User: Fold this.
Amino acid sequence: MLSTKTRKPELEIRHIRRNNQLNTIEMKKSFSKMSVLAMAAFAFVACNNQPVKNDTAAGKAETSTAAPAANSQKVAYVEIDSIMSQYTYWKDVTKLVKAKEANIQRTLAGKQKAIQAAAANFQQNIQANKYTQAQAQQIQASIQKQAQDADALQQRLGAEYQNEVAKYNKALSDSVHNYLKEYNKDKKYSIILAKSGDNILYADPAYNITDDVVKGMNQAYKGMKK
Assistant:
């Protein structure tokens, strides 16, 4: 039976349970945030890959509509939001990312549940004085090790998730850029801008080639490689 000096493990187990509960909450927030970033990351990449003189070119294009010149540059734009909502590849990626996130959360939730059950059982047995001091210390160390392993697993799965999302985002960016090179092989447009949110203050819908681009990309898409 435990002496009164061995009541400390009970408090430490409670601390482990609180930390695990907080880790679960933070895990859900972090993976949810990653999903949002996954769906928005390409817009950032696309905007950062625009030519430096986009604003000037857009201004020239706007003025040229009033008095077109023979050698004026032709400008077009593509709405990134539409690509991300209509491009079949990105729809497939979204399903995979959500499934990956759900699987990670199930795995970590299972670890969390097991740790909580072990901690609750340990606390009950401590209160019933069922352990010797040596037994209590051994079980407590085991539960702490489980909690540490769960934290390490969360970090590893989170890193793998982020790397996978980055891979899909790069593939999306490459797909769009490669298609636009083919789409514009006749040099019809001098500049094709990526429109996302309010990054372009004004754009005449006449310069919007999004529908053509999305249609062409979907026709070229052959499905995700296994």
Summary: Confidence is low (pLDDT under 50) at residues 3-7, 42-70. Residues 63 and 69 are 10 Å apart (CA to CA).
